[in-house]
Amino acid sequence: MTERPSGAGSRAAVIGAGRMGHGIALEAARGGFQVAIYDTQAGRAEAAIAEARADAGDLVAAGVNQADDIPTIVGRLTPAKDLESAAADTEVVFEAVAEDLEVKRGVFARLDRAAPAGALLLSNTSSLAISDIAAACERPERVALAHWILPPHLIPAVEVAPGPQTSAATIESVRDLLERLGKWPVVLEREMPGYLINRLQFALLREAMDLVGQGVASAEEIDLAVRGSIARRMPVMGLFGQADLAGLDVYRQIFRYLAADLSTIDGPPAALDDAVESGRTGAAVGQGFYAWTEDQRDEALRRRNDELIRLLRADRGA
After folding, report:
1. Is residue 5 scored above 60 in pLDDT?
2. Omega of the bond prior to 164 within 30 degrees of 0, cis?
């Protein structure tokens, strides 16, 4: 398979050129869109284009694109001098700025004025309410969630959710757009704190970190257990498929005696508080639940991407 010209002749914009923005822009460009990238930081949009070019190598490795496609795809990415010029004449705008409500409201108020009346205005927020963001707009019916997962060019699922004033037509348009881009739109019926993917992820993290805090097992042992068991099944079966195969009567019985003992803490786990308060904030500073050198961090990212590439090839039957 080569590039996907689903958006041929159309324009898109990405506002915010950080870790998520360049990947979203690459996916839109692969779909045939001419993509304007804007970031308030000078030179950041140009850097995002270079990062997108590097990420495109993963897609060649996965057999999703041919090497000869990449110059054309990356050629569709251009830096914009300001938000207004980026949003002009667009079909869709993807916002990927800081996870700060006032910042996002400011961006959407400007997009509401600058983008064509029919353009989709999509936020990549993972926690803020779409209704709160759309409150800055005179046309909130076209504002919706499109939450991409890092790294966007290798993860197929994109969460989609409406605010109370989002139109049904907007949600269907977002679903259709993402499907044309080759993504898996996961459409929620309504907004909620954390939406779907973060709620599932943080429920598991809460239990795992609480077990570390109780001294039941180390982070290393818990990761070993996850990688060697449930993480092996999930790519194939998901949660509900596995429950069906195991038997829902069995799962109900387990819930009866286990549910009351699962973590119900209403704040960050103690093990997380302890790590952050002691400065162990993760791989970027060399210490989190694990000790990290820069080489170890790069190697972990490489292994992650290699596995995601393998899964993409499997999705395609390669």
Report:
1. no
2. no
Q: Which residue has the tokens 């949009």?
A: 45
In sequence order, which residues have a C-beta less than 8 Å from that of residue 179 and are 6 or more positions away? Answer: 185
| End residue of a domain, out of 152, 168, 187 | 187
Answer yes or no: is pLDDT of 187 > 50. Answer: yes
Distance CA(128)–CA(65), nearest Å, equals 34
Same domain, 23 and 166: yes
Q: What is the rounded distance in angstroms from the CA atom of residue 195 to the CA atom of residue 261?
A: 25
Q: What is the pLDDT of residue 318?
A: 53
Number of domains in the chain: 3
Residue 273 located in a structural domain: no
Give the list of residues 6+ apart from residue 81 with CB closer than 8 angstroms, or none.
38
Look up residue 99 and give its two tokens. 């996870």
The model's pLDDT over 28-48, given as tens digits with 9 standing for 90+, comes to 999 999 999 999 999 999 999
Closest CA to 155 of 196, 187, 184: 184
